[in-house]
Specification:
The chain is mainly alpha-helical. The chain has one domain. Helix content is 91%, strand content 0%. The protein has 2 helices and no strands. Helix 1 runs antiparallel to helix 2. The longest helix has 38 residues. It is rod-shaped.
Length: 81
């Protein structure tokens, strides 16, 4: 049971990291991609928004999976058998 708790904690931290990367990508990603990749500004902004959206979706999925692991662990210790 302890492994599940450690995994759930790790997944929660991973979800928060993904949220942070998504937020940073949304705010500064377009300009950074434009400067580094020498990409047209409009396309770079779209790529930055796409990365932000992907990170948000992945963060939500990882967070939901961690919640389900925690829920299963709590209910497994309560239910008989």
């Amino acid at each position: 049971m302890k492994r599940v708790s450690i995994l759930a904690t790790f997944l929660k931290a991973l979800a928060k990291t993904l949220y942070g990367v998504g937020g940073a990508s949304f705010l500064v990603g377009g300009g950074l991609i434009h400067a580094v990749m020498k990409m047209d500004r409009f396309t770079a902004e779209l790529v930055g928004i796409g990365i932000a959206g992907a990170c948000l979706i992945l963060g939500i999925l990882v967070n939901e999976f961690a919640d389900r692991l925690t829920y299963r662990q709590e209910n497994a210790s309560i239910s008989p058998g």
